[in-house]
Design brief:
Blueprint (H helix, E strand, L loop, with lengths): L3 E7 L3 H12 L4 E5 L6 H5 L2 H15 L19 H25 L3 E4 L1 E6 L2 E6 L2 E12 L3 E3 L12 E2 L13 E5 L3 H12 L3 E5 L11 H13 L3 E3 L17 E4 L5 E4 L1 E4 L3 E3 L32 E3 L10 H16 L13 E3 L5 E5 L2 H6 L4 E7 L4 H6 L6 E7 L5 E7 L3 H13 L4 H5 L10 H14 L13
Parallel strand pairs: 1-2, 1-6, 2-3, 6-16, 8-14, 9-10, 9-14, 10-11
Antiparallel strand pairs: 4-5, 5-6, 7-15, 12-13, 17-18, 18-21, 19-20, 20-21
Helix pairs in contact: 1-7, 3-4, 3-5
């Protein structure tokens, strides 16, 4: 049959693209359905790439990492318009989307543009402006991503009240901003706009941010956010509010503690849901979990054996880096390619706040809960010559968690400039069960930020020998 395929992938985000290309590489007939006119899904269009590009733009325009370091200040934010702010984001997303399209074409993946929905467990219909096409598949992979959760009490209008999608399309800078939610998205956007000199509030329903982080890293980031002028309102929430017809009037945001915020814009950043609306998964008998996610096993296989799901649509951890590999593992399982059977359970988290935060392995709190006899070692950016050259403004530091009896490194936690880059040496150290002395014996280019690892190991050994132990609380100059 003309429209019959070995695999049909729904969604062209990081998970869907990599799965489709891998299956095609192994000479399977593959089709991909994308409902948007552009490729890349949230990873390229509304999430990973655009927000990270905006962060780099904010750093450049604000001169955050240059103030007072080179005897002159470069601060362009006051002269920059919204077009300047959005320029690089638009360019990067456009180029990345085009590369996805080229990659699919290179591997002879047939592309259908339109809304996919299940007819039955092996049949999909694709509805577009040109009509309806029927597609048959031996295997199906759902990689439709997620969308921002919209609670009914929030008056989203995409002009002044935003979710993490619409905030990328603002046509002016807000005079002030309230962010609801101190998760990854909320913290990233709060620090981004604060770097641009915008008065920013973060409202969070608990007394901590980013609860999966090591507590000293999270506390360090909170301190840095406050130093940047961000007001963090812990153990709080917002009540119902309206958008005034007069856009010159501020939004009046009532808080649960009785206070009232008057701000120009509002960003809801407190959750996402699986993007399965319109798919009619019930026609294929697919089991659905909480927040419209699809339930899968360790091979990303649904309860319907020939149907798989990967990426944000299956929920945690909802990271582009993991989603790509989930797609590849799913293809390996469905076609028995025997090249990538499982994903490593040790992977890094990268949070693109200002400053960046990244981690891999066990936190100190996890080591305590698991009853591990552990030690810690610290090194601060300012204590390395590379950090001195950079003129570290963030009081950044690296923290190691290691087992005391073997000196094996169990976790690496970093807050500071380029943390999401330099974490990868820590990833290898944790995966390979490297010891403190093995890291000390490693030769790095000099001067580089990788010296953080070496001197954190020295500090850890010193603490075991009863020397003075550095603490993250010493990060103040």
């Amino acid at each position: 049959m003309t429209n019959a395929y070995d695999l049909v992938v729904i969604g062209s985000g990081p998970a869907g693209e990599k799965a489709a290309v891998k299956a095609a590489y192994f000479n399977h007939r593959v089709a991909l359905i994308e409902r948007e006119k552009v490729f890349g899904g949230a990873g390229i269009q509304t999430g990973t790439l655009p927000s990270k590009t905006l962060k780099e733009t904010a750093l450049y325009l604000s001169g955050v990492y240059n103030k007072g370091i080179f005897s002159i200040n470069r601060e362009l934010a006051g002269n920059a318009g919204i077009q300047d702010f959005m320029y690089r984001k638009n360019l990067v997303t456009h180029r990345a989307a085009n590369e996805v399209e080229r990659n699919l074409k290179r591997h002879d993946v047939t592309v259908y543009h339109g809304q996919a929905e299940f007819v039955d467990a092996h049949t999909l219909s694709v509805t577009s402006e040109s009509g309806v096409k029927i597609v048959y598949a031996h295997h199906i992979l759902v990689a439709t991503g997620s969308y921002p959760f919209h609670p009914p009490a929030i008056p989203f209008d995409g002009v002044r009240v935003h979710d993490s999608d619409t905030i990328l399309n603002i046509d002016r800078f807000p005079k002030s901003l309230c962010v609801l939610g101190a998760g990854v998205i909320g913290c990233e956007y709060a620090t981004l706009f604060a770097a641009m000199g915008i008065t920013t509030y973060v409202v969070n329903n608990s007394d901590k941010i980013l609860g999966f982080l090591d507590h000293e890293i999270a506390d360090g980031l909170v301190e840095r956010m406050k130093n940047a002028g961000i007001s963090i309102l812990f153990n709080n929430g917002v009540g119902p509010f309206e958008v005034p017809a007069d856009h010159d009037k501020p939004l009046t945001i009532p808080l649960q503690n009785g206070e009232v915020l008057h701000v120009d814009m509002f960003l809801f950043a407190a959750g996402r849901s699986g993007n399965i609306r319109g798919l009619h998964c019930e026609r294929a008998g697919i089991a659905i979990g909480q927040r419209e996610t699809i339930v899968v096993n360790a091979h990303y296989q649904t309860n319907v054996p020939h149907i798989y799901a990967v990426g944000d649509v299956i929920g945690f951890p909802a990271l582009a880096s993991i989603s790509m590999e989930q797609g590849r593992v799913a293809v390996s399982h469905m076609f028995q390619t025997h090249d990538l059977e499982n994903l490593s359970q040790i992977f890094p988290y990268g949070i693109y706040t200002v400053p960046e935060v990244s981690m891999v392995g066990l936190t100190e709190e996890q080591a305590k809960r698991e009853g591990i006899s552990y030690g810690t070692g610290y090194c601060y950016y300012r204590d390395t010559l590379r950090g001195e050259i950079l003129g570290d403004q963030d009081n950044g530091f690296l923290k190691l968690v290691f087992e005391t009896s073997t000196h094996v490194i169990l976790g690496v936690h970093i807050m500071g400039y380029m943390a999401t880059e330099i974490i990868h040496f820590g990833l290898c150290a944790v995966k390979d069960k490297r010891t403190l002395n093995e890291i000390i014996a490693t030769v790095f280019n000099y001067p580089t930020l990788h010296d953080l690892y070496k001197y954190a190991c020295y500090d850890g050994l010193g603490s075991l020998a009863g020397k003075k132990i550095k603490k993250a609380g010493e990060i103040k100059r």
